[in-house]
DNA sequence: GTAGGGTTAG
């Protein structure tokens, strides 16, 4: 018997005009429903007799059938099953209204996991639905405001978990418009997603909204926002937030403090490790005990600040406190020693690590491998690389990239490309950085054509050039005295949605400086600053060098003063560039490397 | 299952 004739014998469904309820959803009159029909359909759905169901409904409008099911009060789970089946079978999208009415009824029945998995698929292949249309559908989906909030909440989470953070944020805002109450369970991942995408303004907006909407923020919410603020260098705001959270009855925990410490460590400011140490003292004073992570962050911070003795001191303190160094601690130490060119000590530490019962992981291997490479002992690196296979530590893309880069820098391009082939053979997929190393190698050789060919190969593998790729190209052009061509790449960078980094601008400035075009260099600086990027130490080094080369020592000195006033720490290069000139002008460096003006009355210029 | 730490390319 045919489904169509079952419901409305002798009438075409499509032509039927149904009365609408107040929400504008078509409704069946109870009189027009053949009571025996829905049980048949629900029975077929529950038994998953899809082909029978298909013959049953094929001449009916699938949407109308869905409405029929909804209004018959059938099990929402079966309605959902019919919904997904009909969409797949008839290659159509059921209306948002009906879809969310089903979700509403599922939520009423507390079948949350069904909703979760449905929404997961929904946000994955949702076509042109605007978030506002979806929210309109939610608002019409039923009577229970509370249940609608739950569905909205799950929708936000579904967006975020499927990396559609922007839509998640949009949904978060819409939820506010409708007054739906969201939970920290979805807001926290949203905050976290926004932080990962560097959308700190949105993070701050969402945070403010959460407070306004009286969503009870937990320690994770605060820590996520603190982390976001730290990532963009807003350390003061991050610190304030740590105070604010107490007002909301949430106490900072070890993760809050670790995040702050890491924030200070990553900042290129003068006295940053002093600040980091201050946070450490503060947390102890507040009764929060530092853990392994705290010490790992500090050790790494001291090494990156080129303060090996500080790092050693903290490492000792960690052990005195009874905290056991873990694999990551050793990785940090080994990396620190390698960057301090003390590869032998790094190897000794590796042995110490092994004898303490810890197993070097792939990062440990990559770190030491890199140490060997950077210290011109590529053969040692190869030995270590071969050891990995024996020990069953799988090399990853970074392992290969490190070696490939070393080969390239060693002008062994053939070996580099052979390694690229071998990694592919072993199922390790090259990354953009792998190609970047190879492109840089070819550029160094002056083989721009081959570099371009490699870019095509990347495109074929769906690997998009990143900002480093462009920086390499820019550097290569600048080295050939084609800074004017290089600067044109900036537009292309923006058009690809990439953001130039300090390196990008600094490389261009360096190019112009070496061409003696200080005016163009300072224009690049202006352009950089107009994008909200302040000159960093390298910027100053490049410009100071440019001025020195032109004999404009007054200007060079002015730049040095400017960088000191801005709290930037001149590095070894800065001093190497200007040492002679500065000494001539009556400045001598002190032990810490800061200049005293011995001829003037100025106090120490830090 | 939710928040913090380490390795590559410029």
UniProtKB/TrEMBL annotation:
Keywords: Repeat. PROSITE patterns: PPR. InterPro entries: PPR_rpt (IPR002885), TPR-like_helical_dom_sf (IPR011990). PPR repeats lie at residues 183-217, 218-252, 253-290, 291-325, 326-360, 361-395, 396-430, 431-465, 466-500, 501-535, 536-570. Belongs to the PPR family. P subfamily. This is Pentatricopeptide repeat-containing protein. It comes from Dovyalis caffra.
